[in-house]
Amino acid sequence: MAGKKQFDMDTVLDAAMIQFWRAGYADTSVDDLSRATGLNRSSIYSSLGDKDTLFLRCLDRYTARYGDRYEAALSCAASEPLAAVRAFFGVTLERIADPELPDGCLIAQSAMAIPVLSPAVAQHAREALGLQRQRLRAALEAGGMTDQEAEVFAVHAAAVNQSLAVMSRAGASQAELLAVVEVTVGALSQALRTRT
Questions:
Q1: What number is the average pLDDT over the span 153-165?
Q2: 159 domain-assigned
Q3: Which residue range forms the structural domain that includes residue 147?
Q4: pLDDT average, residue stretch 116-124
Q5: Degrees (nearest 5) of the Cα angle 57, 61, 62?
Q6: What is the per-residue pLDDT for 2?
Q7: 0.90 cut: is pTM over it?
Q8: Which listed residue, of 58, 94, 143, 147, carries a Cα 20 to 30 Å from 9's Cα?
Q9: How far apart, in Å, are the Cα atoms of 6 and each of 2, 39, 40, 48?
Q10: DSSP readout, 103-166?
């Protein structure tokens, strides 16, 4: 259409996602999103929706992008549950170490902001957080744990995964983060040995 500004939707959504990730939902204004995406306010509203709608799109984008990586990491859980869980944490550690990305995790940051989010956005953040636990539980069950054991370890591992993101924002070193992972993997190893 003549006179209408064209833009690449993937590039714009990535820029908005990074803005929300870096500053958080509450501290990101539509003007911040305009600067990050290069779109004016009216283009944001007409093409991407209001702030809540755009945030949900960004949260879904983030969840899908890293969810696919977590799924791939856990794919060997039936035969190698320890390697799968270590690879799961490896996805997080790799993301944290990437200098092109903000510290932390958009899902962890969103979960911490639930008190100031609208009910619909808060529910979406809870669901995104729950996906990690569900993935881990399914992988641990495939690796031979009972439903109850898998649930306990999945809750623990998901909590550790989120704490890695929080610790990275606070300046923890990669070595410190890896040490936290090793404690969890060691506990899982002990639990699996006890079963055999």
A1: 95
A2: yes
A3: 56-195
A4: 93
A5: 120
A6: 46
A7: no
A8: 94
A9: 10, 10, 12, 13
A10: SS-HHHHHHHTGGGS-HHHHHHHHHHHHHHHHHHHHHHHHTT--HHHHHHHHHHHHHHHHHHHH
